[in-house]
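Give me the fold.
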Amino acid sequence: MNHGALLAEGKTKRIYAHPHAAALAVIVSKDDITAGDGARRHVISGKGQISGRTTANNFALLRHHHIPTHFVAFRSEEHTSELQSRQYLVCRLLLEKK
């Protein structure tokens, strides 16, 4: 999946605009792990895959119990140029217009 513009980046995730749907965002879990509010940082290969799958499972559990969320879909894609898997959680992007 191609990404749109980078909207935000945190210690463990990047949020991109969806390339084809303005109301959606793509959340990419990173392989980074941090402690002490980012004072200590390491990269663990495959951590992003596990984190993304765990988040998707949590949303699936909420959906199973009829609790509404903004979760749309989970996708796992191989990026051979990076030699690692990345997970995509496609969520609705809620922007407050002031």
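The longest strand covers residues 71-79.
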